[in-house]
Amino acid sequence: MMTRLNRRSVILLALATMMALLPLVFPSSYYFRVASLVWVSALAAIGLNILMGKAGQVSLGHAGFFGIGAYAVAIGPAHLGVNALAAVGIGALLSGLLAFLVGRPILRLKGHYLAIATLGLGVLIAMVITTESRWTGGPDGMPVAKLVLFGWRVSGSDTWYWITAGLLLIGTWIALNLDDTPTGRAFRALHDSETAARVAGVAVNRFKLQAFVIAAVYASVAGSALAMMNGFVNPDQAGFLHSVELVTMVVLGGLGSIVGSIVGAAVLVVLPQVLTVFQEYEHFMLGLLIIVSMIFMRDGMVPMLARLITRGRR
Amino acid sequence: MSVLEVSDIGISFGGVKAIDGVGFAVEPGEIFSIIGPNGAGKTTLFNVISGMYTASHGRVLLAGEDVTGLPPDVLAARGLSRTFQNLQIFHRMTAAENVMVGRHLQENCSLLADLLRLPSVNRQNRATRAAALALLDQVGLRDCADIPAGALSYGASKRLEIARALAAEPRVLLLDEPAAGCNSVETEDIDRLIGRVADRGIAVVLVEHDMKLVMKISHRILVLEQGRMLVEGSPQQVRDNPLVLEAYLGHHGAREAARA
């Protein structure tokens, strides 16, 4: 019990220290921006990991919720006169509500069938965003008003670095909290054997729905943060490719490993920037790296490294 | 009053009657065994009673209340636990965590409290873990508490399932072949364990192929053959019944056995 508690604090402390120290080595504001992108992506990935890695349910449409969060902070202030911060809350609420309503029927599906159903949901959200151009600006996207907090106009990539870092810390804290609780155990139990979980009295459908709603809210908040940081949204953020990217972050980092999701997000955000030196081979290299790491690190990078370290210690 | 009462259960799969007109009643603290040749419908009967299958007809009463057709998690809350013939453990969780999941219904489970890890959650966690460790101790797995359940031996996994089922504090415990694949020492452990469980007033319904075990610990035995009830009675009555021998060995085999 004590070791668990320590592990949680150690991870949070290490993450916070890294966040605090990184800016010391950043030569330009461009680095702040890339790091903020990592924090935002990691936040969405951690939420998805609670659904996929803990509760064992796949979602191939998760960018849809990301898009809802992003467009909430774009549409809310522009069309409805809603305060930006309130729009973040409204976006999260809408995402959670949609996940709740759609999740009830589709989470009864398993494996490939659930994958297709969630994919359909994501495509649907992206389609609505693209076609309702009067509200959303259509395929071209729309600008997002600057966030104003108590009269202070939030801008600059270093400011957003700290905001997104703070959000990720909170998201990580909540995800780590969940692990060793009745809810967290119910998630992991239904992942391993739905039958046995049911017989133990776990209301399987309720917990799947909870995981789905949690994941949707994480994605929505991440989407809102990115939209405000960029000052712009476009439908790609809700699109299928972005959903696949989120799933890749989770699987590459390690299903069920919260730290893994941060590492996975870092790899998928930073690598394309580094690989630009290969010019037109960039996407080829990225794809190849993912394939190779999946072959040699099937459990994901962080669980694999953790195993190597514990083995070395023995 | 019987804690479990099953009457006139029937279920068909694609026109084949897997179970037909089976009924029995079990008292608290009783060990009631169901035996029969392979394919007699023992596990199917368990699946109907525990809510995994829906019966085409018949009723299941738990402590006098009609629970026919209720889902497994609701039945668990009403006091019915079971284990599985093919292991159903949470193999990525530790042995202790497996049993802690078994305590799910005894725990307060609030999503918000869990997300924020309120002090009450930690307090409850400690209590749940203590209860789980005590149960692991009872089944002789205290030393394995913190290793992943997937790394346990077959016999140990079987006992882990029993500990998890007991964690729910059931009134009725269905055990589906708890001794299958166990060596004689492990079987003796399970034998003693079942005895202790029944002594606490829990009704144990047992499906088992190890006849030595069944004959030794059962108070009553029900013999199924091709989905129908063949004989019900004490171990002595069942052993002496020529119909039972015939069901297991066939007509010719029974004659041979009688001569031997």
UniProtKB/TrEMBL annotation, chain B:
Nucleotide-binding recorded as keyword: yes
UniProt xrefs under Pfam families: ABC_tran, BCA_ABC_TP_C
Keywords on record: ATP-binding, Nucleotide-binding, Transport
UniProt record, GO biological process: D-alanine transmembrane transport; L-alanine transport; L-isoleucine import across plasma membrane; L-valine import across plasma membrane
Recorded superkingdom: Bacteria
Record GO terms (molecular function): ATP binding; ATP hydrolysis activity; L-isoleucine transmembrane transporter activity; L-phenylalanine transmembrane transporter activity; L-valine transmembrane transporter activity
GO cellular component: plasma membrane
Domain ABC transporter intervals: 4-251
InterPro entries associated with the record: AAA+_ATPase, ABC_AA/LPS_Transport, ABC_transporter-like_ATP-bd, BCA_ABC_TP_C, P-loop_NTPase
Function: Involved in beta-(1-->2)glucan export. Transmembrane domains (TMD) form a pore in the inner membrane and the ATP-binding domain (NBD) is responsible for energy generation.
Name of this chain's protein: Amino acid/amide ABC transporter ATP-binding protein 1 (HAAT family)
Source organism: Rhodopseudomonas faecalis
